[in-house]
Design brief:
The chain is of the alpha+beta class. It has nine helices and four strands, in the order ααααβαβαββααα. The protein has helices at 2-10, 15-27, 38-57, 62-69, 86-100, 116-121, 152-165, 170-183, 186-196, and strands spanning 75-81, 105-111, 132-137, 143-147. Strand 3 and strand 4 form a beta hairpin. The protein is globular and about 45 Å long.
Length: 197
Amino acid sequence: MKSILNKSLENSYSYQEYRAFVTNLANENLTTGNEQREDLVHYTQLNEARLHRLDKTIQLIDEVQSFLENLEKVYTWLVISESWCGDAAQILPIINKMATVSDKINLRIVLRDDNEELMNQFLTNGSKSIPKLIIIDKESNDVITDFGPRPVGAKQLILDYKSEHGVVDETAKIELQKWYLQDKGISTQKEIVKLMK
């Protein structure tokens, strides 16, 4: 596992590098990943706008900020993402905001399709669901915990919708985005901190 982590970290982006990369892709009608499809390009462009908005508006709640400011250990937060992923566009700005309040967190981002070995270690019910945050103790290089692809409330919304309609369609995706909008990143913040305690 440690060699897989190290290999992935060598090919990782800082948040600023990732954001610049996604912006360039969106402007050039391209996407990350193994497939260049029109729908994925469309989602990349949509997500670029989401990332831009959330980078400006996400606020940390006091208890989360206080916890992160008082960390004793040093961590690497490694996120598996792709530019077309709607959940990643909602969650990455929150993770970045959390990482920026502590000098004990080094946030790195890798692309799922370029890091298959890593992704296969962090499957969700057998699927390559993203984003996935892997929290690593920097000193020992041990994985402490992982989070993703969605906070509990968002997971439940999708499970309920799929149970009722049999599919996750555009309507489900719109409902999911509304959920994220109303939640304001609070569930994600609380769940990540809870995993670290």
